């Protein structure tokens, strides 16, 4: 009797495993895995402590697809004017940003927003500055390619564009190899798949901070940077409440893990009743809910020293100024059309309470942010424009 | 995976023989323990006390619980926590119980999390970072929380490293 009972229990335990109890504070809603995950033979060159990115099942990774994507990323023939590629606004040496406050498209139209870094973009739970629903790179890239408001690359969804690519022998071969089972490899869908695959390899995780933290290189950080790190992670400044985890960023997504979308109002503007300028009101534009006014995604702070000017509209020039903005708990614009005290905005995140820093502490914090720059990433030849060939005029 | 299954299977064999042995040893007619004093009920009372912030009383409960069930990783983890929260003079004993918890269940993420916190409070950053490295493989969210603790030197809020009630 006793023996039989024990065996039954034992079998149950073997199948279910010991209960994995979790602390009450950690009992967050378990993220839904509504995205299928694919296991592929692709060999990721992940930084040692990074998780494996999620890849959509209909676009598995492969070396040759990544190569094709890299060619396309830098191909100016994908613009109406023939002189703009993704790489024009996403320049490797600037961690795939453009150095401008606001991006400028092929026809000279000024984008209302600042080009985002593409470092570790594979992990972002939702893409672009303020769209919680956009979560596939394959989908995002349709906007710069074909979008009209504003015009970025100004491409027409016209087979003639594909014909131009088809006469390029090298590109032709790459398309064939990347989509071997497709009767018509050169298509807009496959072009997007390849671009997305390439972007998933834009991995940045070997900054001095990583060498210090994960590789035990104590002298990778100066003592000022170590003091700055302490400030960054402190409750007083709470930077790491929003710029979280291995990517120092908003919500992430990787194999077996999917966080909920998150956007915040950081008190940049307060025209009246917390309003942001009508040109860009963040999440509010999609939801129409008052409390979503001015809410944007917290971008990665990796490589932040080379991605200025800062914020969704490039309205803060330097890291020192960004810190001042957080220190006063929101930006106070005294004159002009944008006048208003962001720190008094009713929609400002309650994680932003302001703080006082000495001049030295401020310097330390900026120094710490600089140690998130991954020099190898900025010059990695695998991510650079492929060599020009006679038939293949890269920009 | 394979190894875990084998470890479990052999643990079960052991468990099985112990059960048989103790059944043989048990005096006939000896009363079964009243349910309110089982290790599990003591443990659950301990968790409630922990949540309420009564660390001394919680420690008593967990102490008795592990006396009854010495191989219970979660109980050792919570005992360690309730000891640690009572002050620095308890850090060494707390550490022993974290070590035991991890020995008993090398995949108990919470124990690495709070042992890392304890190492940080004891000024042993290298050991804290080693726990962080293990946590990265077990539970990245707890790992992120521990990273914050190590980098800032501040104790975490909440009780993410405590084990919850037994069901």
Describe the structure.
- The complex is a heterodimer of chains A (395) and B (167).
- Chain A has 395 residues and is mostly helical.
- Chain A contains 14 helices and 6 strands.
- Chain A has a two-stranded antiparallel sheet.
- In chain A, strand 5 and strand 6 form a beta hairpin.
- The longest helix of chain A has 15 residues.
- Chain A is globular.
- The N terminus of chain A is likely disordered.
- Chain B has 167 residues and is mainly alpha-helical.
- Chain B has a domain of 114 residues: Serine Threonine Protein Phosphatase 5, Tetratricopeptide repeat.
- Helix content of chain B is 71%, strand content 0%.
- Chain B is globular and about 40 Å long.
- Chain B starts with a helix and ends in a 15-residue tail after the last helix.
- The chains are: A mainly alpha (395), B mainly alpha (167).
- Chains A and B meet through helix 1 and helix 10 of A and helix 1, helix 7 and helix 8 of B.
Give a concise summary:
Helices cover 30% and strands 3% of the residues of chain A. Chain A has helices at residues 2-16, 63-73, 86-89, 137-140, 142-146, 159-166, 169-178, 188-199, 208-214, 223-233, 284-287, 319-327, 359-370, 375-379; strands spanning 253-254, 257-258, 264-265, 295-296, 332-333, 340-341. The termini of chain A are far apart.
Throw out a few tags for this protein.
heterodimer, A: 395 residues, mainly alpha, Cytochrome Bc1 Complex, Chain D, domain 2, two-stranded antiparallel ribbon, two-stranded antiparallel sheet, 14 helices, 3% strand, disordered N terminus, B: 167 residues, Serine Threonine Protein Phosphatase 5, Tetratricopeptide repeat, 71% helix, 0% strand, globular
């Amino acid at each position: 009797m006793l023996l039989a009972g024990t065996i039954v229990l034992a079998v149950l335990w073997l199948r279910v495993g010991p209960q994995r109890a979790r602390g009450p504070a950690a009992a967050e809603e378990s993220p839904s895995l509504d995205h299928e995950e694919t296991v592929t033979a692709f060999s990721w060159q992940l930084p040692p402590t990074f998780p494996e990115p999620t890849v959509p099942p209909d676009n598995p990774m492969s070396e040759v697809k990544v190569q094709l994507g890299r060619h396309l990323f830098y191909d100016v023939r994908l613009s109406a004017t023939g002189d703009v590629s993704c790489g024009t606004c996403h320049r490797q040496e600037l961690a795939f940003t453009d150095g401008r406050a606001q991006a400028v498209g092929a026809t000279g139209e000024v984008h209302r927003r600042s080009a985002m870094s593409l470092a570790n973009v594979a992990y972002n739970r939702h893409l672009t500055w303020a769209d919680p629903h956009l979560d596939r790179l394959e989908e995002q890239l349709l906007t710069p390619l074909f979008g009209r408001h504003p015009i970025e690359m100004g491409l027409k969804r016209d087979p003639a564009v594909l014909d131009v690519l088809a006469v390029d022998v090298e590109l032709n071969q790459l398309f064939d190899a990347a989509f071997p089972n497709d009767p018509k490899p050169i298509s807009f869908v496959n072009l997007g798949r390849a671009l997305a695959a390439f972007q998933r390899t834009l991995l940045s995780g070997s900054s001095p901070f990583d060498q210090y933290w994960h590789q035990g290189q104590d002298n990778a950080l100066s003592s000022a940077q170590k003091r700055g790190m302490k400030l960054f992670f402190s409750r007083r400044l709470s930077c790491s409440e929003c710029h979280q985890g291995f990517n120092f960023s908003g919500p992430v997504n990787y194999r077996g893990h999917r966080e909920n979308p998150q956007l915040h109002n950081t008190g940049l503007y307060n025209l009246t009743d917390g309003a942001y300028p009508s040109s860009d009101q963040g999440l509010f534009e999609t939801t129409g809910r008052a409390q979503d006014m001015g809410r944007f995604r917290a971008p990665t702070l990796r490589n932040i020293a080379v991605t200025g000017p800062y914020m969704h509209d490039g309205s803060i020039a330097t890291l020192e100024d960004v810190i001042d903005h957080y220190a006063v708990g929101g930006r106070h614009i005294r004159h002009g059309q944008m006048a208003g005290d962001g720190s008094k905005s009713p929609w400002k995140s309650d994680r932003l309470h302001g703080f006082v820093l000495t001049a030295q502490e401020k310097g330390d914090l900026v120094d710490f942010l600089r140690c998130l720059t991954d020099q190898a990433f900025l010059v990695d030849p695998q991510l650079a424009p492929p060599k020009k060939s006679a038939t293949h005029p890269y920009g | 995976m394979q190894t875990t299954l084998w470890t479990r299977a052999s643990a079960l064999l052991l468990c099985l023989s112990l059960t048989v042995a103790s059944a043989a040893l048990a005096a006939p007619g000896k009363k079964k323990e009243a349910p309110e004093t089982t290790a599990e009920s003591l443990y659950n009372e301990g968790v409630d006390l922990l949540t309420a912030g009564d660390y001394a009383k919680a420690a008593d409960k967990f102490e008795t619980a592990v006396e009854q069930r010495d191989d219970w990783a979660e109980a050792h983890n919570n005992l360690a926590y309730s000891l640690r929260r009572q002050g620095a003079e308890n850090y060494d004993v707390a550490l022993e119980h974290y070590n035991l918890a991890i020995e008993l269940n090398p995949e108990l993420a919470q124990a690495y999390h709070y042992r890392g916190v304890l190492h940080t409070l004891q000024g042993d950053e290298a050991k804290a970072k080693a726990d962080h490295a293990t946590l990265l493989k077990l539970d990245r969210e707890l790992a992120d929380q521990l990273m914050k603790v190590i980098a800032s030197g501040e104790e975490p809020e909440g009780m993410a490293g405590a084990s919850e009630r037994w069901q």
